[in-house]
Amino acid sequence: MAAPITLLLVVVPLVVAAAAEQPQLEHPPSKEDRSLALLAVGDWGRRGQFNQSLVAEQMGIIGEKMDIDFVISVGDNFYKNGLTGVDDKTFEESFTNIYTAKSLQKPWYTILGNHDYRGDALAQLSPVLRNLDSRWICMKSFVVNAEVADFFFVDTTPFVLKYWNEPKDSTYDWRGVAPRETYIAKLLKDLTCGLKQSKATWKIVVGHHAIRSVSEHGDTQELVQQLLPILKANGVDLYINGHDHCLEHISSRDSPLQYLTSGGGSKAWRGIFTPNTDKLEFFYDGQGFMSLRLTNTEAHVAFYDVAGTVLHSWGLTKGAYY
Ligand SMILES: *[C@@H]1O[C@H](CO)[C@@H](O)[C@H](O)[C@H]1NC(C)=O
């Protein structure tokens, strides 16, 4: 009878140690009813241009109405080529001086997009920026435990093969990433572990690249093949991304997973449409952002344009699948 007990003792600490390798942040809801509210925006940093300032202003207004707990940035934080270093003034010009509303003075949980990798990627992760603006919490892959929901932030740029094989005129800052296969294998292992351990009502994964998209870039095949099966196998509710400069909501046809694109933080791409096999619920090829409200039983998503008009909203009650 001793053998199974020994096995258990050996296995459990290993799992804990593996999961602990990705940074874990605690963000308990501040509201008395323990509900959580947040905004998600992507593909934004253009010194206010291409309506970045208009989107920022409306985020401030909606953020105030919803009394948000935090903001998620899904990457492509600084165009065209990320930051040149920790002293790059673009950080203030495109972030600090743009998102000035009181309601947006909350943590910004941020990941890197492909354009961020074209500059000094490590600069965006540096505590120097957090000293300049305490809202800035940028890491490659990490977890935010927000009680009602666990958010798994995934560094998706290294998945995309063409950035490695055909970088064209761009150079990617793969410090701390290369070799690709090892990095991805570890990332997926940590994610799987974290998802399996998560006891939160809502499991939400955040990446820069879309798994499903009907816009310019379309589906990201590397993510469809390598990331998606893990999300489906572990009951992930929402996948939130940017990369395509539009707003989208697509439903999986064979799982509860919802794909949400919020890549309308500044320059938008008009008039591109590439259908895919999942169910398109909403597509807007203009600028804007997304909000999310979560309780223990309900999720509510809304998309807004530059005028703050609600373009699409969608709700789900947990346990409503038959
Ligand atoms: C900014 O938004 C307005 C709508 O409020 C739109 O007419 C205009 O084309 C947008 N500008 C850019 C540069 O996208």
The arrangement of helices and strands along the chain is HEEHEHEHHEEEHHEHHEEEEEEE
Strand order of the largest sheet: 1-6-7-8-9-11-10-12
Measured between the Cα atoms of the first and last residue, the distance is: 41 Å
Radius of gyration: 19 Å
What general form does the structure show?
Answer: globular
Q: What is the CATH superfamily classification?
A: Metallo-dependent phosphatases
Query: Could you say what the CATH architecture is?
Result: 4-Layer Sandwich
Tell me the number of helical segments per DSSP (H or I, 4 or more residues long). Answer: 9
The helix content is: 25-40%
Q: Which CATH class applies here?
A: Alpha Beta
The CATH topology annotation reads as Purple Acid Phosphatase, chain A, domain 2
> Which spans of ≥5 residues are poorly predicted at pLDDT below 50?
1-19
Enumerate the distinct ligands: 2-acetamido-2-deoxy-beta-D-glucopyranose
SSE-based structural type: alpha/beta
Q: How is the biggest beta sheet arranged? A: 8 strands, mixed
Written description of the protein model:
This protein has 322 residues and is of the alpha/beta class. It has a single domain (26-282, 291-317), classed as Metallo-dependent phosphatases (Purple Acid Phosphatase, chain A, domain 2, 4-Layer Sandwich), CATH 3.60.21.10. It has nine helices and 15 strands. The protein has an eight-stranded mixed beta sheet with strand order 1-6-7-8-9-11-10-12, covered by helices on one side. The protein has a seven-stranded mixed beta sheet with strand order 5-4-3-2-13-14-15, covered by helices on one side. A hairpin with a 5-residue loop joins strand 14 and strand 15. It is globular, with a radius of gyration of 19 Å. The protein starts with a helix and ends in a 5-residue tail after the last strand. The relative contact order is 0.16. Bound molecules: 2-acetamido-2-deoxy-beta-D-glucopyranose.
